[in-house]
């Protein structure tokens, strides 16, 4: 089993010191108007002496290479194994080579424009990141020009911090407010002219960076439903320290799979100074061989490792209940629920009609069991006491009759009482107390002026409160209907 490992991404801060004695970098960028030098790196003290023949050449663009010496330009000086510019200008851009005996060294020089609106040029800053509470040191040094430097000033965000100092420096424990651009400006005299050399540090202060144990986000084992022939992107993301690495590992029995690609890692710094990294593994044109094997993503740090695995499964194998069956089931359940609710609502609204219809259908007759042949006990054969309330009828005698009748009905015989409010009763004080105990559905209100039709709600409600009795067919309905009048 081969393992595929990614090249580790390194975040190394290169602190370019101005105290460089020779020029080792082959590509150099410098700002116009500053003193500048190129110095051959394998220069022994014996070579430094004037007698050894040293040649400097410049070539730029299609131009032939030309030899450089103080005679070719007043800005150029030769000093030991160094070529000095007083100062360097835009047209000094080009390739330079040094020759001495059979030694040679080459450089490419790029002179850039000075930012006239700032004390430094953005392209020439050295970035440095320092953690809060850690040691922060900024030193202004220039060993090559040291003997020539008249004074040095230190600026923070172009505001002067320290002035007229030989080697100004800052040494402190870093705080968030220390973040900024620090420029060291060395002033020096040469041939009666004043020059300056600016070196700027871009200091970023970050939160505490004590190491965390890195973690991969999400579940440890992931089943990913895929379709053959399609592509899939497996996203692995982790919370980690700056120097931790994330990589993918998977079996490659038959050599590397050309359809598997690792995408570039994306890192974002969290507010706590930790990193959020994500790395995607893209599998194109998924084949049978990509199914049911482990694709592992690992985060590694000095504190340990964490791994999570992805398995590709065919889409149909994935769901226990196919989606469409589940949806249909839900729809049916909801429809049944709605139907039940509707049925109950209809039953409550048409309760009276339903009971009457049932009685008609069953031909029920509760009156048949009552004793009908005893004329003297009229009350005894009564199943209901109907009271028609009308204020004009409420004389003292009637009141007495009503009260005793009610007593008979409610206490002794337990006859059911139906109260018909004939005219609107606003003042109930004239009514016997016991009437107030009546349930509200046993009180019917007569609202019309004329007699109502047999189908009206009033008669249906009255019929509902009455004992069940089959109405003989063929009988004229007007015969059955009582006629109420005020007289
Ligand atoms: C440094 O020198 C340049 C010209 O070469 C000038 O424009 C700039 O103002 C000088 N900087 C300071 C701080 O004197
Ligand atoms: C200075 O550093 C910060 C943070 O690292 C960065 O965002 C900014 O671009 C840098 N500035 C320059 C001029 O390089
Ligand atoms: C810097 O130069 C000025 C005049 O150009 C001179 O008066 C002063 O003494 C010099 N300072 C140092 C430290 O060389
Ligand atoms: C991967 O997932 C993380 C969150 O878990 C997200 O921030 C990131 O953008 C995703 N990357 C891609 C390429 O989809
Ligand atoms: C992936 O991880 C599992 C569990 O950690 C391990 O058993 C398996 O060998 C790993 N496979 C590869 C290819 O690294």
Number of helices: 7
Q: According to CATH, what is the topology of the largest domain?
A: Immunoglobulin-like
Strand order of the largest sheet: 1-8-7-3-4
The CATH architecture of the largest domain comes to Sandwich
CATH level 1 class label of the largest domain:
Mainly Beta
- Strand content is 35-45%
Instruction: Outline the biggest β-sheet.
Output: 5 strands, mixed
Mean pLDDT: 81
Q: Give the CATH H-level superfamily of the largest domain.
A: Immunoglobulins
Number of strands: 27
Which consecutive residue ranges, at least 5 long each, have pLDDT under 50?
Answer: 1-19, 474-487
Oligomeric grouping of the chains = single chain
> Which of globular, elongated, flat, extended, rod-shaped describes the shape?
elongated
Radius of gyration: 53 Å
Approximately how much helix is present in the residues? 10-25%
Q: What is the compact description of this entry?
A:
The protein has helices at residues 45-48, 315-318, 323-349, 351-362, 396-412, 457-465, 477-480; strands spanning 27-31, 36-39, 54-59, 66-68, 76-79, 82-85, 94-100, 103-112, 125-131, 135-139, 149-156, 159-165, 169-173, 180-190, 193-206, 215-216, 221-226, 232-240, 245-250, 260-262, 266-269, 275-283, 294-301, 304-314, 384-389, 416-421, 443-445. With 487 residues, it is of the alpha+beta class. Residues 1-19 and 474-487 have low confidence and may be disordered.
């Amino acid at each position: 089993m081969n393992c595929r490992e990614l090249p580790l991404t390194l975040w190394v801060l290169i602190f370019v010191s101005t105290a460089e004695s020779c020029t080792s970098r082959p590509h150099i960028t410098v700002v116009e108007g500053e003193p500048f030098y190129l110095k051959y790196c394998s220069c022994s003290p014996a070579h430094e002496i004037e007698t050894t023949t040293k040649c400097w050449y410049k070539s730029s663009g299609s131009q032939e290479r030309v030899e450089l010496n103080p005679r070719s330009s007043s800005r150029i000086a030769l000093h030991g194994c160094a070529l000095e510019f007083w100062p360097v200008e835009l047209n000094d851009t080009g390739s330079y080579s040094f020759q001495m005996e059979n030694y040679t060294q080459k450089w490419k020089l790029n002179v850039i424009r000075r930012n006239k609106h700032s004390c430094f040029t953005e392209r020439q800053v050295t970035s440095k990141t320092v953690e809060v509470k850690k040691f922060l040191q900024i030193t202004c040094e220039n060993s090559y020009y040291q003997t020539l430097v008249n004074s040095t000033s230190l600026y923070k965000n172009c505001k002067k911090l320290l002035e007229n100092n030989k080697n100004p420096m800052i040494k402190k424990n870093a705080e968030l407010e220390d973040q900024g651009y620090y420029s060291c400006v060395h002033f020096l005299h040469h041939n009666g002219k004043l020059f300056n050399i600016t070196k700027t540090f871009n200091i970023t202060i970050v939160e505490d960076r004590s190491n965390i144990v890195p973690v991969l986000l999400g579940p440890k084992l992931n089943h990913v439903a895929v379709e053959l022939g399609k592509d899939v992107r497996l996203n692995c993301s982790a919370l980690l320290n700056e120097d931790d690495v994330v990589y993918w590992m998977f079996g490659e029995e038959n050599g590397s799979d050309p359809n598997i690609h690792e995408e570039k890692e994306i890192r974002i710094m969290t507010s706590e100074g930790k990193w959020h990294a994500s790395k995607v593994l893209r599998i194109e044109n998924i084949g049978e061989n990509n199914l049911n094997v482990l694709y592992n993503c690992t985060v590694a740090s000095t504190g340990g490792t964490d791994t999570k695995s992805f398995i590709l499964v065919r889409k149909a194998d994935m769901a226990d209940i196919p989606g469409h069956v589940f949806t249909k089931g839900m729809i049916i359940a909801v429809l049944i629920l709605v139907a039940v609710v509707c049925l109950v609502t209809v039953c409550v609204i048409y309760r009276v009609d339903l009971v009457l219809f049932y009685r008609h259908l069953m031909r029920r007759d509760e009156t048949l069991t009552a004793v009908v042949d005893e004329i003297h006990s009229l009350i005894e054969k009564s199943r209901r006491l109907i009271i028609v309330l009308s204020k004009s009828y409420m004389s003292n005698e009637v009141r007495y009759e009503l009260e005793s009748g009610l007593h008979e009905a409610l206490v002794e015989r337990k006859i059911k009482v139906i109260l018909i409010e004939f005219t609107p009763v606003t003042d109930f004080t004239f009514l016997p107390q016991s009437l107030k105990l009546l349930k509200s559905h046993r009180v019917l209100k007569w609202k019309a002026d004329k007699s109502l039709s047999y189908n009206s709600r009033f008669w249906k409600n009255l019929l509902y409160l009455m004992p069940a009795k089959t109405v003989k067919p063929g009988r004229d309905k007007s015969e059955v209907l009582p006629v109420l009048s005020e007289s």
